[in-house]
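Can't paste images in this forum, so I'm doing it all in text. The chain is below; anyone willing to post the predicted structure tokens underneath?
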Amino acid sequence: MRFFKPNLRSSIHAILSLGHPSVPPETMEMEIDIEDIRRAMLDLMTDVEDARFPQVLRRIRYAPDVPGLWFLRGDLMAALASSHGEAVAREKLETLSEMFEDLLPDGLRSRPSPLSSSFRNSEGSPLARADGTPDSGFKPSS
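Text version of the structure:
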């Protein structure tokens, strides 16, 4: 008894369905997948002394999915901050975080931080005045 019975129709269907990608080539080049993010994270780790953070490298290398890599950004930030300083590490992680934009569920996306300058200067900030200038929130007592 044969489990797979090849016939002419299934062979032709297999040839035609695999021969042409369903996504246009321009779109295929623009998409970012888990391996692109993993490669970018490992590239950032090349500047860090590998002997001090082997567990971070291992966890990045073997993360099973995009949310797993998302949660490893904190470990990556700690590794980068130890060798470059927090300001440089934050700049490097901002570009990395943009790669996750369409790959995460809504609950895992970054929210604007009240500590960031872009949030303080935004219209929706509780620390922004009506004219758009930032307000420190400090009111001297009279």
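Confidence is low (pLDDT under 50) at residues 25-29. The first helix runs from residue 8 to 19.
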